[in-house]
Specification:
Layout lengths: L7 H13 L6 H7 L5 H26 L12 H5 L7 H4 L8 H9 L3 H26 L12 H6 L8 H24 L5 H14 L2 H13 L4 H16 L1 E2 L8 E2 L3
Parallel strand pairs: 1-2
Helix pairs in contact: 1-9, 3-7, 7-11, 9-10, 9-11, 9-12
Length: 258
């Protein structure tokens, strides 16, 4: 099989990601991921990761972009699938015309960078989810039930419970998950068949900025330096990636049998 090399553009996209992450994907994980018998699990879990990323972003919008009594105005995830571009703030809420209190909600949303970045991310992640499902269907791989890895839960276990610390930590966690995804797209691409390799390189191009969006939002919500928390979660993330892991998943650690 001919390897698909990463071009200069991809190398430039990866440079800050490599600088952000505290470790590279272990060769032992890559060796396991390259095995044909793991392709179905890899793609199913990848699809799950894309959907979970969209759901996490949507949860942030619901919790932090609107007061509790207005959250019902936000649509469910299916709404975003039909959007061709970032919608106007009125369309985000699924309303054509609002007056009174709702108008004031719109005025606040217009200033909300979290809303803008998360809606864009939701759209992209849902699109990628559909793309993975299409690839799976073409290869006769069913979208079967697959247990989640320890990765995301292992990071979220360290999120503080008071605000604004909670949202800051969640955004930092989001940054590491997005960065690791891109790093693994790049590590895997040269060893996959041509269709998958090109797809993963396209995902790298599309998602390379996501971790920076999360970090920018974390700094805005903190109002002070978050460097210590970024380092803290970087160390925790590296531990999850480097330690033996009994499951093989897209974000799993070193295979326990390796």
């Amino acid at each position: 099989m001919e390897l698909i090399p990463l071009n200069t553009e991809c190398s430039q996209l990866l440079a800050p990601i490599h600088g952000f992450l505290h470790c590279a994907t272990p060769d032992e994980w890559l060796a396991e991921a390259r095995k044909p018998e793991h392709l179905a699990a890899l793609l199913v879990d990848h699809a799950n990761c894309e959907m979970k990323a969209a759901m996490s972003a949507h949860s942030l919008v619901r919790r932090y972009c609107l007061p509790k009594d207005k959250r019902k105005l936000l649509p469910n995830l299916d709404f975003y699938k039909s959007l061709d571009a970032l919608p106007e703030k009125g369309e985000v809420l699924g309303k054509q015309a609002l007056i009174g209190d709702n108008k004031r909600v719109f005025d606040e949303l217009a200033k909300n960078d979290l809303l803008v970045k998360m809606v864009r991310l939701i759209q992209e992640e849902l699109h990628h989810f559909e793309q993975v499902l299409e690839i799976m269907a073409a290869r006769g791989i069913p979208y079967a039930t697959l247990s989640a890895s320890r990765y995301a839960s292992g990071l979220l276990a360290h999120v503080r419970t008071h605000e604004p610390a909670a949202i800051v930590d969640r955004l930092i966690v989001g940054a590491y998950i997005e960065a690791r995804s891109c790093e693994r797209f790049a590590r895997l691409a040269p060893f996959l068949d041509e269709e998958l390799a090109r797809f993963y390189v396209s995902l790298l191009r599309s998602e390379a900025r996501h971790y920076q969006d999360y970090l920018t939002l974390a700094r805005e919500h903190a109002g002070q330096s978050i460097d210590d928390r970024v380092v803290f979660f970087g160390e925790k993330e590296a531990e999850l990636i480097a330690l033996p892991d009994p499951q093989f998943r897209f974000h799993s650690g070193v295979p326990a049998a390796a």
